[in-house]
Amino acid sequence: MAVRRLRPVTPGTRFRVVNSYEEITTNIPEKSLTVPVKASGGRNNSGKMTMRYIGGGHKRKYRIIDFKRNKVDMEATVKTIEYDPNRSAFISLVEYTDGEKSYILAPQGIKVGQTIMSGTKAAPEIGNALPLTVIPLGSIIYNIEMQPGQGGKLARSAGSFAQLQNRDGKYAIVKLSSGETRMILSNCMASIGSVSNPDHTLERKGKAGASRWIGRKPRTRPVAMNPVDHPMGGGEGRASGGHPRSRKGLLAKGYKTRHPKKTSSKFIIERRKK
Fold first, then answer.
1. What are 32-75's pLDDT values in tens digits?
2. Entry pTM
3. Which CATH number fits domain 3-201: 1.50.10.10, 1.10.10.10, 2.40.50.140, 3.40.50.11720?
4. What does the domain layout of the chain look like in residue ranges?
5. Which of 83, 139, 101, 137 minimizes the C-alpha distance to 127?
6. What span, in angstroms and rounded, lies between the C-alpha atoms of 193 and 126?
7. Residue 5: its H or E element
């Protein structure tokens, strides 16, 4: 996996850093696993704009990803490694021995032709999905469930991973890449390895048009607005805008918004590093 710096033949390519996509084996998705996705433009069901700075962008098809990995004790062969416009990680098309095909999150180092499996009988090897009860301590994992049978929720973006540190009764203790250490039920599933495309953070758009391609419109700075539009607007000259806050007045940069009595707080052993 590598990134590629473009030759500065135009102002837009001068600082542009793109993915080389060396691992990608095909650019044609599996038709049976794609569904159309309608762009909202930031509007709700009555047509009112509820999210600003959203609109345009390239047309996409959604790839149905198997986050549950619930076809247990059945081998699957990796057919392709593909780009997915809906996420930062790459995806893999796998075909099971009974002929069924599905997309999974591609782990770093997966190869076409490789055999993967899920269930308690699977070996703790890259791409295999196992319950946390049988994964060796210290293993690097991704696509971790938070409730049994729910499907993976944690460590799904490009290059992310977690580490299984310990087991305590019916809970497993997992350290996430944010630095947070939390307890997860041991019968939850997780996949072995780390998510593909770790160099995603090194990419640089290089021009405003690259943001428009993914459906992001230019964002007006709050300090450039008038007082009627934002609490940080107004002032004489280039006024800084006072305390950082949202358009509705909610403080930012350090103000805690998490409820102190939130139910899941008891499962968090150590908070993420600030």
1. 999 999 999 999 999 999 999 999 999 999 999 999 999 999 99
2. 0.91
3. 2.40.50.140
4. 3-201
5. 139
6. 5
7. strand 3-5
